[in-house]
Design a protein that fits this description.
By secondary structure, the chain is an alpha+beta fold. The protein has eleven helices and five strands; from the N terminus they run H-H-H-H-H-H-H-H-E-H-H-E-E-H-E-E. It folds into two domains: 163 residues, no CATH class; 144 residues, Histidine kinase-like ATPase, C-terminal domain (Heat Shock Protein 90, 2-Layer Sandwich), CATH 3.30.565.10. Helix content is 63%, strand content 11%. Helix 1 runs antiparallel to helix 2.
Length: 401
Amino acid sequence: MTLPRPHRDDLLIAAAGLACGLLLYAFSLHTQADPLVTARWATLVPLAVMTAAETVRRTLPQAALVVGTVAIVADQFTYGSLLTVLMFTDVVYAAVVYGSPASARRIPYTTGLITIAVTVGFLAWLQDAIALLIGLVTGIVSFLPAVTGAVVRNHRQAAEAARLRAEQTALLAEMDRTQAIMAERARMARELHDLVANHLSAIAIHSTAALSIDEPATTRQSLTVIRRNSVEGLAEMRRLIGLLRDGSGDTEPAAAPTLDGLDALLAQARTNGGASGLDFVLDDTRDPSEERREPLPTPVELAAYRIVQESLTNALKHAPAGTVTVVLARDERALTVRVDSPFGDRPGPRAPGSGSGLIGMRERVALLGGAFEAGPVPLGDGAKIWQVRAELPAEERTPDA
């Protein structure tokens, strides 16, 4: 078994103690005048043993305390050295500070009991007040260093616990910051997709039609739709970039779209989808009087509008000829948005899709604590429609509410 190397500071303390002890010995400065062992050189033996204990005060604190206790007891039978006593107090202190938790708890109680026992024992033996002085010295040499070590150890443990808590707090703050950044990026991605995808889809469909159908009237109509959507998409992109930049662009807050704008949204979809044989119908079953009494929260209206907008965009991309129906219904608990689109193979040009629109709709509904479904729904005659259905809470709340 390899013993740990002594700490450099412990070696310096031991060397300083030994040097001072030898200096006191040279000047015949001792702590006792009438020892049991009268040979002067015997004083150096406990001093040397205590010096050896000091070298391992940090690496082997319990062994150092045992050796130091033997040395301090032996020192009482010689002329004695003040440095042996001082180094013993440091060994006791180090045993509490650097020892095991059990030793750190046990040593102060043990030294306290020894101090009391020495005081009581000398009182019974000497029957003199000098016994109290002996007990006081014993407490100063053993109990006081142990208590000091316990206080220092507790402070170090408290400081370490505070450091760990600070690191955990910083880690949690960094995690929160990262999650906030990711959430903001997801929100920006949804907004960018919802603002621009509709226009770009119309441009893709009509540009493909203009290239594939060699008819002047069709080409002119397609180019008209392409120009209008490109201009509107560019304007929306500029507005979004202006909002993202600090101190530039349009600093006025843009009004969030509401369900009152669905008529205009469907009219634009009719223009974009007319060449593909698509028609768009709005079926609003909400009670107007109830709507005026209890307006929907702004996030709910915005989410409903974006869901309809994205559903119409998907219909323009993928739906065959037919009617796209937008249904709005509301009760005291929720607002229901449903978009039914023709489902099947579509002839002619189509725009590619990435699936991010459905992801964005699902995220919007989840943030409000609602329910979302999208997929083909069979009809009674064997045909199918593609249905998007979202149930949004009539009162704004979080998913955990």
